[in-house]
Amino acid sequence: MTCDLQQKILAFDCLVPRYTSYPTAPHFKAIDNSKDVYEQRLHGLPHGTNLSLYLHTPYCAKMCHYCGCHTKITQRYAPVEDYIHLMMREIDMLGDQVPNHCTVSHIHFGGGSPGMIRACDFEKIMHRLRRNFAVRNDAEIAIEIDPRGLTEGRVATYAATGVNRISLGVQDFNDRVLQAVNREQPFSLSYNAVNLLHEYGIDDISFDLLYGLPYQTADTIADTVEKALLLSPRRISLFGYAHVPWMKKHMRLIDDKTLPSKDARLAMFTLAGRKLIEAGYQAIGIDHFAKPDDPLAIAAQNGTLRRNFQGYTTDDAPAMIGIGASSIGECADGYIQNCVDIPLYKKAILGSQLPAAKYTTHTADDLFRRDIIHGLMCDLSVNLIDICKRHGHDITVLSNEINDLRIYEDAGLISYDPAAGQLTVHADARPITRVIAAIFDTYLDRAATQPKHAKAI
């Protein structure tokens, strides 16, 4: 990336959503009665609907200062065990509501730290899921893992219960960086974790890496990427650390003076991305990289890549059910989010009520704009004329947005062909994709005094 291009990208950087949904979570509204909204949506799932299940574990043994997740810290297992029992009761309630003709093609355990769940309890959860849902034999079952808590017993249980994809929270391999964010994690832990997973036949392994952390430099990022390549994961996510101390108070424990500048952050992302591509990985969306034979890369090539609350995915299930506190699901009618607060979640479950707290109802305009936004986020390119026709519009409905694109086109970051309707974000301008997508977001309040999002870079 030239210095001129880098400065143009930085000049357009601003506060924008991550667009794992549209509308985004800050625009969900409160539910008065889950029976009137959630249960009706579950009952109305079309015959033969494929489902995706997301289970959220909102506990960690230690708080990483960069964390933006819904989680609580506990050194005791008792709160986790109590929560697991609540979650299994929720699974039973959902099983009573979801029609028998539905099947499950994806299961994802996120957090927090779902790796905190003991092997015996994880086995119980999987048994409860299979008892209530028709889980397909070829279902992808994935779990996010902190290498610091991985044991052979847990890996053996994962393999025995059908887990076939693991996402390892590597973040960085530099000791000084990790110490600054309260996550001491030597390279040997990840090395041993990868070997253990392979030993039990779990070969689809992803790494999460972060750039923009305290004390990171181009040299430390290069070293981290080289170490990651030694372990040869199938996928690598290269996320930018979002420093939002006004939203996450524990981020105030990070000294702002130790954070890299915007210029340095962009240089880190560019350097890391180049190294991964040179090593044979393919760039996916705005911040993922995958080996050419990985399903994510294949989906990107054939235009079936999708984006949801877990990020980029091959999950093509038309409906997702969120299980656990703060989890988010989606049916054709809109999104549903469970109570974020664990006591409220517990109260609902013990009262034999589904713990849904917020929702959206998709409007025709939401679906129209979501197609554009997710197309840009997944493919960096959309045909606006085709999308307009698909939703019954003339291209003139986007006149204002197309006009707003001109400054980015003049800067050489995008191209737009009015005759064909093709809008493309240039590959080198990948980091600014969220900013381009935000042009089509009618909910975004650019003048908000209380920021709800982080910058794109």
Q: Give the % helix.
A: 25-40%
CATH architecture of the largest domain: Alpha-Beta Horseshoe
- For the record, the count of structural domains works out to 2
Look at the structure and name the CATH superfamily of the largest domain: tm_1862 like domain
- Averaged pLDDT, please? 95
**Largest sheet, spatial ordering of strands:** 11-12-10-9-8-7-6-3-15
Radius of gyration: 22 Å
CATH topology of the largest domain: pyruvate-formate lyase- activating enzyme
Q: Give the amount of beta strand, in percent.
A: 15-25%
Output the structural class: alpha/beta
What global shape is seen?
Answer: globular
Q: Which blocks of ≥5 consecutive residues have pLDDT under 50?
A: none
The rounded distance between the terminal residues' Cα atoms is 15 Å
State the total count of DSSP E strands: 22
Major sheet: size, sense and barrel closure? Answer: 9 strands, mixed
What is the count of helical runs?
Answer: 16
